[in-house]
Fold:
Amino acid sequence: MKKEWIRVDHQRHSNQLKRLSNSHFNQDQTTIIQRKKRSVYPMTMNCLSIDEFSQIESMSQNYDLHALNNSQLITIYSLNSSTLTDFLNNEEKVYKNLIEFFKSIPQFQQIDIEDQILLIKCNITHLVHIHHVLKDNFIENSQIGFQMTQWVNRQFHENMSKNRLKLSRFHQHPIILKISLAIFIFSINLSRLSSKQFDCQLNNPNQILENQNYFLTLLIKYLNRIYNENDSNKAIQTLVFQYLQYQLLMDQMELFIQNHLTDQHFLPLTKSVLRLT
Structure:
């Protein structure tokens, strides 16, 4: 934790909270007062502590450093001359950037290394689209629709686009999506295990659930700070719904790959997260 966050002086504490409030929670004061009058959440769910402010600040900076900035270094290829295999292999670089971000989260570092690998393998394909929304600043590539229609089919692209559009409501508060990445990486249902791997077990599922609950609580407090109660609930519903919808879309993609593509042309990490190995 930064030294400035542990100053004992009360005024210093207040100034830090004010600075972070202005930076992350640009919200009209009248709206906040109205929200507080309507809120039925316990006070502890409406107040972010200074440590929690620090966690949000650090996580946002680490995401920008490891995932967002590095994404700009990815070689941009012509979608018009690329195949679906090319596109999926290019995603390997995105996966690596996201993994670096997850490894920067202290709670993720603390869990068993085998659990880390299993969580990444099972969850990262459900999260990569959230990263793309952030990376592209909520603007969908104008060419990807045509290409995805050619690669798979129009319905698949339209469903992907609709799912992505739902996240545009967070354009003013992209850090919501950054926190959601931390929440969903700790999902333990392991829904992307292949039939050959059903016997894989997490070594410490309770610790993983505790971490997920921590970031979920952090998100709820953040939402209660910037939204009224109704909008906070809708935000949670949107995040969960799009996450589940994307799981279904990835199942469709997996089936398409198995039926139409050969795995020998995929890079190692791509093969792993697509359950081809």
